[in-house]
Write a structure and sequence with these properties.
Strand content: 15-25%
Strand order of the largest sheet: 4-5-1-2-7-3-6
Number of helices: 14
Number of domains: 2
Number of strands: 11
Order of helices and strands: EEHHHEEEEHEHHHEEHHHHHHEEH
Radius of gyration: 22 Å
Length: 326
């Protein structure tokens, strides 16, 4: 099960226990639920505490910024989570671990979401701005919880992949977000599901890191990969069609993305200081479908195989190719 980890300061107030954290606006918009249908009067009563403990105030500076859209956000966690202390000298500094199956509901609802989205349209750099978030815990009936899951469970599962797609221009322009397969005439090169699986493979050694750290790692890696994939860039720049690339090359197939994800995991673990130099070598790979090498492991009966063995073949090929050319 995929979990969200947030570094927090734990505090107590007349309204109950709450946690203070900071998160990027872009991540909040993808991760939190902004739906007025699920905000009760009881939820609306949650306020920013008038008096903050000095340690929390010092750490999180809960003053109203120049832009109201970036002021502290109040939300509640609608389900189980755990708190772990990370500071031996202060029991109230730690992290909370929340399953992606557990909804996090923003009290201000759709109005706040729209305001933040509009601000990002005007000033895109605010997407990466970290704002204070005050998290309460709320015990809501399971029937309500089920309705949240029906609506948003898929979004939670794909939150990292969606963040990557949003921040990597080639993925943003060339990814089909709804279908799991591409029609013959589609102008897309990739699908959300293929990028999701590839990114999960990439981050296999980072499960214990905060969500935002995982997103940063994934975005950094895929941006580097995109730099060295000539065919992807040709489609992105309008020099050729995505259909031609999908037909004549293997570089945009789901198994290739998955293998590139596994390759990234291997390179970051084995060469943490110079993996970026290693990954450059993929620009020299012959991605043509007619390359005899592919018929040794991934082209079966003139079709690209999706089998695990084919992914393993590609990962080994990439590793050997890089080792031989470095």
């Amino acid at each position: 099960m995929i979990n969200l980890l947030l570094g927090v300061v734990r505090e107590n107030h007349s309204q109950g226990e709450f946690f203070l954290t900071r998160s990027q606006v872009g991540v909040i918009l993808q991760l939190f639920i902004f739906d007025n249908r699920f905000i009760s009067e009881e939820m609306k009563s949650l306020k920013i505490p008038e008096k903050m403990d000095f340690s929390a105030e010092a750490l999180y500076n809960l003053t109203t910024p120049q832009y109201p859209e970036l002021s502290p956000l109040v939300a509640f966690i609608d389900g189980e989570f755990s708190y772990e202390n990370t500071d031996s000298e202060n029991p109230n500094i730690g992290k909370i671990i929340v399953s992606f199956d557990v909804p996090i509901i923003a009290v201000e609802g759709e109005a706040r979401s729209l305001a933040m989205q509009n601000l990002i349209k005007e000033k895109p750099e605010f997407k990466d701005t970290r704002i204070p978030v005050i998290l309460y815990h709320s015990d809501i009936k399971q029937s309500h919880n089920d309705s949240y899951l029906d609506i948003d469970n898929e979004d939670y599962a794909n939150v990292i992949a969606k963040a990557v797609i949003d921040q990597v221009p080639i993925f943003r322009d060339l990814t089909e977000m709804k279908r799991s397969s591409l029609p013959m005439r589609s102008h897309y090169l990739f699908t959300l599901s293929s990028i999701d699986k590839a990114t999960q493979a990439l981050l296999i050694n980072y499960d214990d890191d905060d969500l935002e750290i995982q997103i940063d790692i994934a975005v950094n890696y895929w941006q580097k990969v995109c730099e060295y994939m000539r065919q992807w860039n040709q489609v992105f720049q309008g020099e050729t069609s995505s259909g031609k690339i999908r037909e004549d090359y293997i570089c945009s197939h789901a198994i290739t993305l998955s293998a590139l994800g596994h390759l990234g995991s291997f390179l970051m673990k084995s060469y943490p200081d110079d993996w970026q130099e290693k990954i450059k070598k993929i620009q020299d790979i012959n991605w043509l479908r007619s390359n005899p090498e592919w018929h040794k492991g991934i082209i079966v009966n003139n079709r690209v195989s999706k089998a695990i063995d084919s992914i393993n073949f590609l990962v080994n090929y990439f590793q050997n190719f890089i080792d031989a050319n470095c």
